[in-house]
Specification:
It is built from 10 helices and no strands. It is an all-alpha fold and about 220 residues long. The N terminus is likely disordered.
């Protein structure tokens, strides 16, 4: 039976705050957020990167307010939510096409859709599916968009699994590694979360830089 204290904390949870989500729901919350952010368009605002990193950090027992998670269940929940969510989003896109996105009035969501289309056009299906995992909002929109654009099921599944595991497991382990090596690191959680979001964008930035160099080299030869 849920006690009034636990029920109260769950009702008061801030969905935009990683620590609040983890304190209320633990690793089950991680799985649910990963699923919603990558599979349902309504989850585009959820804090995926910061949640994974903070959850990994709390597995070391360095978090505030006595919140401590277990690494094994965390990795399993994060991976399952990220992979199942992406596949669900893809299937929704195949069946509903762009209708769901067209009905949305969110400017941020439509901007994410535009960036997702640019990724697919610039890098091709495989690279775009992997890179999208590291870009907030884009990782929400690209999965149903891939379904609506008839990206082959096998291609999508293989590369969303690759990208999903690197993203979800990688960020969780990064938080765990940092928390294990630096005592009291949780006191600097906010700047660390900002840093990890920036770091998560490095694969995309590197790919953009490489493609621009290649385009510049072709123009010079031409």
């Amino acid at each position: 039976m849920t006690t009034p204290v636990v029920l109260s904390s769950q009702l008061a949870v801030n969905p935009l705050d990683a620590h609040s989500l983890l304190a209320a729901f633990g690793v089950l919350g991680v799985g649910a957020v990963m699923f919603a952010e990558t599979g349902l368009l309504i989850g585009f605002f959820l804090p995926g990167d910061s949640l994974l990193f903070t959850a990994g950090l709390l597995c070391t027992g360095t978090g505030e307010h006595g919140v401590r998670l277990s690494l094994g269940p965390l990795l399993a929940a994060a991976a399952f939510g990220a992979l199942a969510g992406a596949q669900c989003g893809y299937l929704i896109g195949r069946r509903a096409g762009g209708a769901l996105l067209a009905r949305s009035r969110s400017a941020r969501l439509h901007e994410g859709a535009k960036r997702a289309e640019e990724l697919l056009a610039r890098y091709g299906q495989a690279k775009a599916i992997v890179l999208a995992r590291f870009v907030p909002v884009v990782r929400t929109v690209l999965n149903p968009l891939a379904g609506a654009l008839d990206v082959p099921v096998r291609v999508f599944t293989v590369w969303q699994v690759v990208g999903g595991l690197v993203w979800s497991v990688g960020l969780s382990l990064a938080g765990y590694a940092l928390g294990s090596s630096i005592p009291g690191v949780d006191r600097y959680l906010l700047p660390l979360v900002a840093l990890i979001v920036v770091v998560s964008l490095i694969p995309l930035a590197a790919e953009l830089y490489r493609n621009r160099r290649q385009a510049g080299a072709k123009e010079a030869r031409g």
